[in-house]
Design brief:
Layout (H helix, E strand, L loop, with lengths): L1 E5 L3 H12 L3 E5 L2 H10 L1 E5 L4 E3 L3 E3 L8 E6 L6 H8 L3 E9 L6 H9 L5 E13 L2 E15 L6 H12 L3 E3 L4 H22 L10 H20 L6 H13 L7 H7 L6 H15 L4 H22 L3
Parallel strand pairs: 1-2, 1-6, 2-5, 3-9, 6-7, 9-10
Antiparallel strand pairs: 3-4, 8-9
Amino acid sequence: MKIAIFGSGGVGGYFGARLAQHGHEVHFIARGAHLKAILEKGLRVESFLGDVHIPHAQATDDPAGIGPVDAVLVGVKAWQVPEAAEMTRPLVGERTLVLPLQNGVDAPDQLAAVLGKAHVLGGMCKISAFIAEPGVIRHAGVIPYIALGELDNRRTSRVETLHAALTGAGIEAEIPENIQAAMWGKLTFIAPFSAVGAAVRLPAGAWRHLPPTRALLTEAMQEVVRVGQAQGVPIDERAVQNALAFVDSLGEGVTASMQRDIMEGRPSELEAQVGAIVRRGRERGVPTPANAFLYAVLLPQEQRSRETTDNGR
């Protein structure tokens, strides 16, 4: 397949490298020092599942130079999706699939508003990876996984084809019965885990077993489920138990990407994760006091980081 990776950081860089490693024509869209290093030295992935080096990786900051592709994997941060959707236009031909891999549940609608609903799949991933240095992705933990599916949950040949490409590249991938339930199940874990970690400013092992802190985490997860149910998503308390079990399975030093961004003063996915829960809860009349508390605690740092970024300081 001809595949474009829009956003070649930890998420996109890892999955794109695996696909390229197994013979697919992969185009990496990157920028700055990361792009320069990829063009000069190739893209390297350091992983406990085996390192990868794509010495002649095809990389650019101009999607128009690539032309239409079979599939676009969108790996940018959730708050960057609207801009990415506009820049993705030259990559989208008549049969192109666009697979969002963001945390949260807003990306499919944001992409569809620009590119057309017929092109957009539902999707999510699980991975812990980041840019260790320009041109180098470090896969730090979690077995990489992608869920994908049509937004109406039909089992189509085009989804089967992309699924086969992913699994053929050694990526654990699944077409769940209901992609919305899968996305909300991920949100049940990632938003509360990221927010509590950012609030306490410590890795998982330092707080996940403390009864008051775990109670806050659990209540925030339960609120996500209740908001999802109010939107008609088939999700129940099992999502909370699965999320808590996943939290307990993580290494002592694990932190979420949103937590790291907040702690390091960068713009984060606060709005797309916790903010989305509070906003959607308000729209549906579902109380979200735990998430509202976490959002209020983290919002000042988020606003400061964005002001700093906007001002170029």
